[in-house]
Amino acid sequence: MRNLRNIGRSLLRFTDNNLPLTATAWDASSNSLICAFGPCESRAVIELKRLKEHTDTQDEKLKKIASWDAPCPLPSLSYDAILDLHYFSDSLTSCLILAGGDIIIVREEPLSGEDLIEIVGSVDAGISAAAWSPDEELLAIITQANTILYMTREFESVTSANFSPDDIKVSNHVSVGWGKAETQFKGKRAKALRDPTMPEHVDEGVLSPFDDRSVAISWRGDGAYVAVNTVESETRRIIRIYSREGLLDSVSEPVDGLESALSWRPSGNLLAGIQRLNDRIDVVFFERNGLRHGQFSLRLSSEELENMTTPLKLKWNNDSSVLAVCFPEKAQLWTMGNYHYYLKQEVEFPRSERGHTVINTWHPERPLRLALATSDSLQTLEYVFTTASGSTCSPNDFGLLSVIDGSSLKVTPLRVANIPPPMSLHQLYLKHNALDVAISNSSTRIAVLSETDISLYSVEISKKPIPDPVFVWRTTIPLGHCPRQIAFKGDAEILLLTSQWDKESSTLWKCGEEKVYCLGETTGFGSISNLFSSINREQVYLQTTSAFVVKVDTSVIVPDTTELRGKLVNKFPSTVSWVQVADYAEEAICFGLTTSGVLYANERVLIRNCTSFLVTHAHLIFTTTQHLLKFVHLTTVEELEIPLDEPEKDERCRTIERGARLVIGMPTAYSVVLQMPRGNLETIYPRALVLASIRRSIEMKDYKRAFLTCRSQRVDMNILHDHAPEQFMANVHLFVKQIKKVEHIDLFLSQLRDEDVSETMYKDTIRDKVPNAIAVPTNGANSEASLGKNFKVNRICDAFLKTLEVHKDYHLQNIITAHVCKTPPDLDAGLRVVGNLQEAKDAQAERAAEHICFLADVNQLYDSALGLYNLELALLIAQQSQKDPREYLPYLQSLQELPPLRLKFKVDDQLGRRTKALTHLHALEAFDELRGYVEKHSLYSDALEIFKYEPLQLNEIMKLYADYLSNHNQFKEAGIAYEYLSNHASASDAYRSANLWRESLSSAMLANLPAAELTSLASTLAEGLVETKDFFSAATIHLDYLSDIETAARVFCKGYFFSEAIRVVTLQSRPELIDDVVDPGLVEGSASMTELLADCKGQIQAQVPRLQELRVKKAEDPLAFFDGPDDPSIPDNISLAPTDHSTSAGTFMTRYTNRTGTINTTTTRKTSKNRRREERKRARGKKGSVYEEEYLVNSISRLIERVNSVNEEVQRLCEGLMRRGMRERAAAVQAVMREVVGLCEGCLGEVFLVEKGAEMEVKGEVEDGGERPVGADGVLWDSLEQSRKMKEAPVVKAFEGMRLL
């Protein structure tokens, strides 16, 4: 769907030169052209000149490099001829191959001792053809002695081979006639006796009557093969394929009328040649094996065919996209798409007396730049692939495309008819071959540019079906001007860009029906590469080769020698090949794409891997080399945000087919058309355009269009509400009025859910950048969030119910849907609607029942209908289900016979609604049955609520509840219940079982237990508290209830409550107990505490160094750390971690990288028995095992917790020792405690703080490394993951100590 557009054209004539231009070559380093003039019959001289562009005079353009006499050494030639001219940019050297046999090099900057011109070799027999390989390392020469000769860059002979008539036997071609007319089925009686696989005519290779017997040579793009086209024995032409080593690979099959032209497509799949037939001239293709592979006709008229006596030439460009066909005085550029060849450009030359075929030289690095030359003129041209399309701004985005194909123009509006190329909806037949085409803003006019005139056609794009375009008028191009480009401004103004021979500047014209008006020359802007309109066709711009973008003033008509008036808009950092301009906030944003894939927005680089782009009124759309389609919201240049490569997360990014390029975008149809590399079209509907259209429709309150878009593009319909919640809730009536159809409203209601899709799957990316860009208030989502997301569906359904009540008869189905779609479904309300219809004997009742059964589970509906105690409704629902009438009919009949309250109880009991059933029993005044029902279903709380104003029944239920709690080990609540009933004895027992000694003893006192029982109870409770190490509580019982002061003091001392013990004995006037109880307690406590702290100190001093040693070993040699075999032959990518239960090959830890995976599947470690055994090994943390590190870390962590727990006890112990004059003991305990706390604080960094980077690395490995193993391997996995994670260090509680010590 792309056309070739001329973006650079330099025209030069050599009127004063006596020597003809005979060869050209590109200097890729300086982008200049090397031209060779001569020799000719009148002058045996060769002149080598360099062409410089952008200069004023011809003398400045052509810089002479060298000139020398070149007489022909062969008497058979009247004068010598240049067969090949090649320029080596790295050495500034030109190499000329002459037909007389000389090989000449010309050095532009010769070193000392080097000649400017040197004949480096000569072939005595003469040379027929020569060509350098694409890598410039090998020269292939065809001599006139029918020999192929290979030479190196230093012109040393490598190998040679002779042409032989027997070469034809190399390839035994078998043609089965695929695709030929003679092999097609024509009926059972047609040629029934002939083999259909044998063609009627087999080519014998008959020579063309205009064959000049010349030789052609062409290399494949990778330099691996070379093809030679020669005449064999004056009978036929043959193409020989030689390898780089000089071996004959294959020869071509015979083709009648095959001429000397030959060009191997650089991609390598085809060789192109010329076949001259009686009624046409074809370009034919061969495969490397010599077989034919298609052709296309050059579309010459009979007059042109009759006058075409000079052999043609072919040349592919370096990326295989364009084939140049050279005629006398003109050249054609052909492209291929979908196996159809398009004539995209025809370049004509002034008529010449010599009439030689045009010389074509493609640029070696810029695929669409070439030089075309005749003997007395030269054109350097550069093209770009563009799409001639209509506007991309609504409402004129019809997707109108125009594809040039010689003298025909293929026109297709893709929004109306998505017709794949090479077909089209309309085809215009033109008088001349088209050069360029432009489409107006409204897509109703098409302007076609040819070499001689401009034609305007009218298209009635709004009609259905669209009629053929109609010719309106034609205007002639001014004499002496060569047309290049054409563009529309609005719908009426047509602008033309032309060039002239021997002038660098271009001229801009305004075209009218009668004549063409000049707007001025572009002298002040330099060389012009592109004429184009803004995306809305309101302005026209010029793009210069120096990367400037100029806005053109088209209002003033001037003489053609006056300088053009314009305003500089932007300058790109580098030269771009294609530009589009969009207006945003009254500012022009120029988007430019370079040939290397850099996409600019004014001077800002947006992306460096772009392959194509287009601009709409709201988006910049582009494709990337990663095969992604991306959308950028138009805003100021600084705020343009390029989405990340996350097609699964961001609506602005989408994956596309490899190599796809943009053709056109149609925002109104929310579609984008892509063209695949082969040429076929694909229309997609990107989420970015679809959602933009939906949001725009919502903001305009066009809910019908938004709904239909959601429906056709499978977009979650919650966006209709979530994009603008407040607006939607205020316009529910408008939504219903626009949608109208009952099934469409049902579809919307059934898709509602509480998720806010505008913040999740359809997050509006433009809101984050421009909060005020959307006219609809966005605070509705926040207000809804404040109410809770769970209210969204119910709020919408309630609003619809309120609106639909007005037209209840028509929207009955929608009303039921709104009830059922609530969260949770309001089945009762929906069934009431059906029930009301049933009571009114409405004919819609059965249809309503069918609909509600379709929306919800029929079993739930049946239960809900029973719950309404409407047996007729339950019967109606049951009839819509798959239930067996023999089951539900007897049951419903039995319910029908019951009294109302008993019916309700039975129904609620069956439905499991126990609380309601209990209320019915209460209404029936059946207390005994109620009590049994409560005990059966544990409905004690509900029964207490029912009987809260009936004390007798309340106490009886409370007694049952207390017994229930006691039997189910809920002793605390049972005790409270018994105490509520004043049953203190039972309450005391319950409290004792709950270990609540205060409540148990107080209840026992209230129950007036005998003193012996009370003493026994207190003793039992005290003993239990001592066992649980609650010494303070146990001592309190001994003191308050047993009056045993001595025992109380001993228990206080066991808990290190020495101050409390001293207080109690002095309060009870027993000071002798200080010496008898407290002092021994202090001595015993200091001894046990000192021993404990010494153990902690020893543990730290032993475990921390061991842990350091393990981690050093792990860092130095991970394989040895995990008990791996020390075998250097094992590769690094094999997992190693053997244990006692696996062989050396059965592993899952990866060597050096700690990656995971299991390669031994024959072991039994995955059994549960081995897993338990491995867990026991992990818990033990045996020294030397892989679990030792984890065990040591956990052990030190538990030790710190233990030290923190005795902190206060040590503090109380030291204070008690000092009070009793035991300073040395106190000092010793305090010193040990300080030392232990210091050791704990000092080891925190070494034991617990793993580097955060390592943790993140491990996390990444776990995510990529696969699943966790099972069995014993899983235990090791867990251990190693735990050891590598950053364990939070425990807090070491500070020890205050005493200043007195």
Features:
alpha+beta; four-stranded antiparallel beta sheet
Task: Please provide a brief summary of the model.
The protein has 1301 residues and is an alpha+beta fold.
Question: What do these coordinates show?
Answer:
- By secondary structure, the chain is an alpha+beta fold.
- Helices cover 33% and strands 25% of the residues.
- It has 37 helices and 55 strands.
- The strands form 14 sheets. A four-stranded antiparallel β-sheet has the order 1-28-27-26, with no helix packed on it. It has a four-stranded antiparallel β-sheet with strand order 2-3-4-5.
- Helix 12 packs antiparallel against helix 13.
- It starts with a strand and ends in a 17-residue tail after the last helix.
- 39% of the residues are buried.
- Residues 1073-1244 form the ELP1 three-helical bundle domain.
- Residues 1155-1165 have a biased composition (Low complexity).
- Residues 403-663 form the ELP1 N-terminal second beta-propeller domain.
- Residues 1155-1181 are annotated as: Disordered.
- It is found in: Cytoplasm; Nucleus.
Report the sheet-strand fraction. 25-35%
Annotation field: number of helices: 37
Which stretches are low in confidence, meaning pLDDT under 50 for 5 or more residues running?
770-788, 1124-1166, 1250-1266
Rg (CA only): 49 Å
How far is the first residue's CA from the last residue's CA?
Answer: 96 Å
Helical content stands at: 25-40%
The total beta strand count reads 55
Overall pLDDT confidence: 86
Shape: elongated
Main sheet summary: 4 strands, antiparallel
Structural class: alpha+beta
